[in-house]
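In the current project phase, the collection of sequences with tokenised folds has grown. One resulting record follows, to show the layout:
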Amino acid sequence: MDRRMFVRQGLAMGAGMAAAAPRRRDGKVVILGVSCSPRKGKTTATSVKAALDAAKAVDPRIEVDLIDLGGLDVAGWRGGAKPSAGMPEVNDDFTGLLPKFQDPELGGLIIGSPTYFRSMSSLCKAFLERLAPLRSPKLLLADKPVGALSVGAYRNGGQELVIQEIQTVMLCHEVMAVGGKPSAHQGATLWNAYNDDIMKDEFGIKSAQLLGARVAEAALKLA
């Protein structure tokens, strides 16, 4: 094969790949935030929203969406089932939410969980298991930035352990696990020390905002 033929074939392959790749409309990049607390609208949801607000402020192209799983029926994955994209194995409240995670405009995720006995909530575990269809037949979340946050009853109540658990699961999707900036290198850690008024935890809310901004910046670079 001569050099001219090699260049022509390379250009043709590149054009084919560009045509096949899903394109985002109007350059929009969506950041989904998921609150995995059974207490709807409480501290975890507020913390995820703070992260999303900071993400949205990074660039006009960023759009955000908060999914609060509190009060919803979300079952875990059934053993032995073979997940495939678009074919959930159970019908519950999460079934209608799955398309949000299949949207080609999805640029990144922020996942929040309370810490229960120094581990993620059972709702968070069920949610993470139900993302299994996004791994087959294609890794739909691959290379998307994912940040995690956790809310605990104590300042050192296991928040970083929960963040690590979430990141470990999401790495099965080959995502880009990101933290925030100082002081949120691993993720956002919040302390519910003010009777559910999490906004009074200025240090924790700041870590959530830093995490949100970092996820947005990474999503724009990877879009």
Summary: The beta strands are 29-35, 62-68, 106-116, 119-120, 145-152, 176-177, 188-191. The first helix runs from residue 3 to 20.
